[in-house]
């Protein structure tokens, strides 16, 4: 029983981690809490749905294309909403508020286009094979979700750690002014990070859409507090932290549903987060929060 | 257009910092191979001038010519590619990156990676301590080591003109002396230097010429040795142990 629950938790947690990764990346590099990340997540799910239903594509072809579309949406949000505020050296709450506006606009647009009701992938889109190992049942979809999430996270970590571009991203995350003086195209890094983060968020949307087979305009909303909690837990702006935090939240939710009651799911998950933060206020991987003038 | 032989020629530069005009009508030239000191009290506009030269602040008037080309409206990364490289105030080491990563990023704008790898060896030979600490987070270095890293990182960009903002800040006198010796050695290899300093005596000792900046205006410029003997400069900036920087 517990092994079965762990499989379910790993699946859910890896999608949370993927979602939180984009969220933490934008915070770490642009220093913006992007509250439109949930709307991009939703848009990714709809993009995949359209590609499957209108273009008759296989879901695993639709997934990368939906990620590109989400990335483009993220880039658009950066250029239209965030960039003008960067130019004005606005107070750091202003970009956050502006992303609420962007989120509302995108969500309402989705409601206008697709209606408020839940859409579903047509039959045969989602792989339904499953494997029985002892008493544990693992579906093909669960395996795919875990593998895709972990591959994407690993890829991102390797790029950040090893490549020239990744080092430039880390430099901008620590100090944009110094990055300019090193000859780094800082605006280019902002655009790249906005795109990548949104692509990861949209990818998470597709995977959640598949695993519950439910896509609706407000599906991103419950993800936002979870995303915020995960990146605070992991340490703001820390990539490893978002991964571990996402997995942790998945486990906490699944276990509280399995052994307590689904009514207490969020209460238990957020209660645990609260307790951890009491002990480690800067998060699991966070450095002591310091801000240079 | 430009018929002079100045490496850097700043004419009539004015820069606003926020709503304050921090620099007015600044004229300054640097010849190839020179060390030029820009001295002045805290808030005189020294850092503002350097930030404008590096493209981080937009001049509201005036021109900045580098090797005859107008670089005053270029973006910061384009200015770096021209070989105008700044070691910013407070060193601005990337503390979460390793020492080697900091140095590698110094060569970020260069196309020829093989040459950059050769230059890395040259820099590590010049600063053996950086080789020793290569894989440590740069935040673990001492203040003097961080200044060496900041200078080494700037050298990785093959500067034609090195801009230094207060390299002596926060360092022990002996360490400061070492840093200034290094700057002189770098200068001997053909790199020109613009040195911004509150530590006027040290700066003028290594410089060929100097400019004195007061509330955003150049009030004096001369050879460094003349400035060291100028009574106004002695009173205001070389107060020998007294409060060095109080200007009336």
Account of the 3D structure:
With 293 residues, chain A is mostly helical. Chain A has eleven helices and two strands. Chain B is α/β, with parallel strands linked by helices and 248 residues long. Chain B has a single domain, classed as Rossmann fold. Chain B contains ten helices and ten strands. In chain B, helix 3 runs parallel beside helix 6. The longest helix of chain B is centred in the last third of the chain and has 16 residues. At the A-B interface, helix 6 and helix 7 of A face helix 2 and helix 3 of B.
How far the N terminus sits from the C terminus of chain B, by CA atoms, comes to 41 Å
Mean pLDDT of chain A, to the nearest integer, reads: 90
Q: Which regions of chain B are unreliable across 5 or more consecutive residues at pLDDT < 50?
A: 241-248
How helical, in percent, are the residues of chain B?
25-40%
Largest interface, counted by CB within 8 Å of the partner chain's CB: A-B, 17 and 23 residues
Q: Residue-averaged pLDDT of chain B, rounded?
A: 89
Instruction: Classify the secondary structure makeup of chain A into a structural class.
Output: mainly alpha
Helix segment count of chain A? Answer: 11
Main sheet properties of chain A: 2 strands, antiparallel
CATH topology of chain B: Rossmann fold
Strand content of chain A: under 5%
- Describe the sheet with the most strands of chain B: 6 strands, mixed
Tally of strands of chain B: 10
What secondary-structure arrangement, pairings included, does this model have?
The complex is a heterodimer of chains A (293) and B (248).
Chain A: H1 2-30, H2 37-53, H3 59-87, H4 93-114, E1 130-133, E2 136-139, H5 140-162, H6 164-174, H7 176-181, H8 186-212, H9 223-234, H10 239-259, H11 265-279
Helix pairs in contact in A: 1-5, 1-8, 1-9, 1-10, 2-3, 2-4, 2-8, 3-4, 3-8, 5-6, 5-8, 9-10, 9-11, 10-11
Chain B: E1 6-17, E2 20-31, E3 35-40, H1 46-53, E4 59-66, E5 69-70, H2 76-81, E6 84-87, H3 99-106, H4 113-126, H5 128-132, H6 143-155, E7 161-165, H7 173-188, E8 192-197, H8 200-206, E9 209-214, E10 217-223, H9 224-229, H10 231-237
Helix pairs in contact in B: 3-6
């Amino acid at each position: 029983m517990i092994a079965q629950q762990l499989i379910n938790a790993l699946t859910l947690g890896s999608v949370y981690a993927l979602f939180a990764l984009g969220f933490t990346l934008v915070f770490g590099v642009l220093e913006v809490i992007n509250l439109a990340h949930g709307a991009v997540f939703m848009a990714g799910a709809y993009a995949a749905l359209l590609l499957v239903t209108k273009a008759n594509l296989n879901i695993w072809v639709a997934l990368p294309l939906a990620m590109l579309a989400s990335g483009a949406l993220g880039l658009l949000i950066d250029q239209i909403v965030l960039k003008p505020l960067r130019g004005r050296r606005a107070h750091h709450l202003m970009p956050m508020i502006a992303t609420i506006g962007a989120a509302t606009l995108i969500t309402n647009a989705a409601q206008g286009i697709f209606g408020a009701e839940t859409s579903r992938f047509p039959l045969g889109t989602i792989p339904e094979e499953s494997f029985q190992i002892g008493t544990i049942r693992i579906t093909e979809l669960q395996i795919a979700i875990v593998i895709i999430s972990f591959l994407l996270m690993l890829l991102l970590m390797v790029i950040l750690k090893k490549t020239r571009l990744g080092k430039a991203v880390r430099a901008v995350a620590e100090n944009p002014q110094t990055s300019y003086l090193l000859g780094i195209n800082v605006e280019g890094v902002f655009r790249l990070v906005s795109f990548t983060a949104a692509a990861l968020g949209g990818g998470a949307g597709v995977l959640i859409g598949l695993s519950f087979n439910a896509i609706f305009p407000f599906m991103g909303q419950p993800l936002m507090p979870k995303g915020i909690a995960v990146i605070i837990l992991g340490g703001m702006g820390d990539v490893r932290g978002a991964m571990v935090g996402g997995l942790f939240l998945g486990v906490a939710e699944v276990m509280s549903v399995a052994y307590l009651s689904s009514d207490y799911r969020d209460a238990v998950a957020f209660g645990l987060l609260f307790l951890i933060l009491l002990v480690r206020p800067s998060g699991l991987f966070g450095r002591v929060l310091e801000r240079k003038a | 257009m430009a018929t002079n032989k100045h490496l850097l020629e700043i004419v009539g530069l004015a820069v606003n910092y926020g709503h304050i005009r921090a620099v007015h009508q600044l004229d300054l030239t640097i010849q190839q191979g020179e060390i030029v000191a820009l001295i002045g009290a805290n808030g005189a506009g020294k850092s503002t001038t350097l930030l404008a030269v590096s493209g981080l602040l937009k001049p509201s008037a005036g021109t900045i010519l580098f090797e005859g080309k107008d670089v005053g409206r270029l973006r910061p990364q384009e200015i770096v590619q021209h070989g105008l490289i700044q070691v910013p105030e407070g060193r601005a080491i990337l503390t979460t990156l390793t020492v080697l990563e900091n140095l590698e990023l110094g060569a970020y704008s260069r196309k020829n990676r093989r040459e950059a790898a050769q230059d890395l060896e040259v820099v590590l030979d010049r600063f053996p301590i950086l080789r020793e600490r290569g894989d440590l987070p740069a935040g673990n270095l001492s203040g003097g080591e961080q200044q060496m890293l900041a200078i080494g990182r700037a050298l990785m960009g093959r500067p034609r003109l090195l801009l230094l903002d207060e390299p002596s800040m926060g360092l022990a006198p002996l360490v400061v002396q070492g840093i200034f010796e290094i700057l002189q050695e770098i200068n001997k290899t053909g790199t020109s230097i613009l040195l911004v300093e509150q530590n006027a005596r040290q700066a003028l000792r290594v410089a060929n010429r100097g400019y004195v900046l007061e509330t955003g205006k150049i009030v004096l410029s001369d050879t460094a040795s003349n400035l060291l003997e100028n009574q106004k400069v002695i009173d205001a900036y070389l107060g020998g142990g007294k409060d060095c920087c109080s200007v009336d």
